[in-house]
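Prompt: Have a read of the protein record below and flag anything odd:
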Amino acid sequence: MFKELCKARYSCRAYDSKNVEADKLAYVQECVQLAPSAVNRQPWHFIMVTDPVQLQAVKDAYHRDWIQNVPAIIVCCKNEEAAWTRRYDGHNHADIDLAIAVEHLCLAATEAGLGTCWVCNFDINQLRAGFAMPEGYEPFALIPIGYPADKPTEKVRKAICETWERR
């Protein structure tokens, strides 16, 4: 059930160095491509980084020890020029569209027995300097992906009555 998948997904911060099978990575890619976006613009570009030299360049932009063992990182990029913009207030939906696609990625990975973690606190300039970005795209998030070497901690969430109302 979907609720069980949502419960199983967590921010994994310890990975086995074992490489992920190509069919599992392909499954995740297919699930991401099914993500909806405003006006179906799909203003995203994903880079699956597994080459050791390229992988180190990405890891160097995030200064945490736990990421060093991960066998792959997906660099998630957005293109604000390609995204839909709401005409009433000029709000660009690139961030929203990409967030939906990235969560599809994380849930698909969980279903495949893999761990992921949203990493947004990385040095964008260092990433750009050490890693070639596609023209017109900017990095949005890094998603380490691999076999978990840790166990999820209990999720603490606000009560539904604190975040929902009925009118």
In short: The CA atoms of residues 83 and 89 lie 15 Å apart. The beta strands are 44-49, 72-78, 115-116, 138-146.
